[in-house]
Amino acid sequence: MGQIASTGISRVSPRTLPRPSLRFRTRGGSLGLTATRTDHLVSQIETGLPFKTLPSLAVSSGLSISQIASALGIPDRTLARRKAAGRFAPDESERLLRVSTIFEKAVELFEGDVDGAVEWLTRPEKALGQRTPLSYSRTELGAREVESLMGRLEHGVFS
After folding, report:
1. What pTM did the predictor assign?
2. Are 147 and 141 in contact (CB under 8 A)?
């Protein structure tokens, strides 16, 4: 009587399940953005991206919201205010698009393998001074260097 019947269903955390291969059709696709023209994307950034784009990136990437917020340089209290307001400031929106672009390009580099891309983005790289590509992308200059590194890796030039 004191025993619990086994249901035969094992509990598997979402992180242990293989993620399907992923491709993004438009820049900002991992944010749930559908703009196909740069001028529309610029307009959205100038207005400020909706807060829901952050959870969208978290779901697409498997990164936590706090990991992404850290890469964006947005403190917890500011993040809470943005959630309440429902929108990011234009400069934060631009950083969010930058990080999503780096993620999308990493997924492309890893031929749709999201887990491989995220593992690479969160592992320190010698070519980036032992910093992770995600943290290095916190600035525009750093993001360009991460893109350059991805280009070298894609063409077999290891640095």
Report:
1. 0.82
2. no
